[in-house]
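Page 47, continued from p. 46.
Same chain as before, 425 aa.
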Amino acid sequence: TQVELEKSATTGAQRRPARVEVVPATPGAYQTVGLWFERVGPPAAIFATTLIYLFLILLNPGDLRDRLVRLLGGSVHRTTDALNDAGQRVTRYLIMQLLVNLCYAIPMAAGLWLIGVPGALLWGLVSAVLRFIPYVGSLVGALFPLLLAVAVDPGWTMLIYALTLIIVLELISNNIIEPWLYGASTGLTAMSLIVAATFWTALWGPVGLALSTPLTVCLLVIGRHLPQLAFLDVMLGSRPALEPTSRMYQRLLAGNSADAVELAEESVADTSPRQFYEDIGIPVLRMATLDHRLQEASAEHRHHVVTGMAAVIEELRSHYPAERPETPLEVLCIGSRWTVDTLGAGMAAHALALDGVAAAATPTAAGAVTAELIASLGSEGAKVFVLSYFSPNPQEHAQYFARRLKRRWPESKVVLALWNVESAE
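Result:
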């Protein structure tokens, strides 16, 4: 009936669900040991396997060396040099690492002893050993004395002193001692070191992290000595991937005049404008002329090179102005035919002016040797005319141009700057 249904509904609403609690069973001794082995077993197995490999390698190193020489093939001299270079680099790296660790551990132990942390000598030794593991070792080595300082001192004084000591030692070690001792001992870039640490750690765990730098140094040396594996040197090595001339040419082709000017200023800061023109400026224009002759460069590329190099020359002139002596014009550098010839003439004139010679540069109108051009050179002309040519075959034009100049100024000398002719000085 309806009354009974209402009573049953009221009774069901008053009932509450029973509380159920799942209590995990306490693991026994065997289960505890099994869980411990699950956590410690894989790293311990990798470490034991590494020790076995090391023992087998040291048991007969000569045989392994012979097999590597046979496997790499090619020139025996080149392979031998690669193996010797790898051994020397790894040895130098480990010695420098040991010195860095000692320079860190000795002040660490002394500082902890003065602060009052128990076992200061032990923690200094532990930090020296753990710092052989890149990135992680220094953090783990610093964690033990900090935890002990928290446990021993009821206040914060010992912890603050210990933390300050560790931070100061890390700053000194990372910014002064390591750059001073390491130098270019490994030849690896910072990016390649991080990538190598990530790769070898993912492959072998903590052991791979500890061996990441020596193993990567071996790969770098092999790539540096064997042409088949040269890409390893490009990817891992700290040497510039492009020569200064190629770097400058690439920036100009990309239309990045700002980077080209920056590269030029860096080069000039170490040498001089004249050396820059000789080592980089003229070779870049020579490369541009060759690409134009082989039809590998578009009109846009040629425009980028010309405008960018003009900006570089103008920037160097403004930063390194030459005081023109109060004497008549001695040398006139003429861009004989094309725009690149004019750029070469500008470089030559600037270099001569920096040497104290009264020199100037002037272009020609698309290589046309006209009466107006001869008249524009002045009534007295110059003692020396320098005709700039990047053409590989400038003989006819150069002879005609020189003849016109000698006819107008018989006492003057004509010098041909043949930048792109083989055996030309």
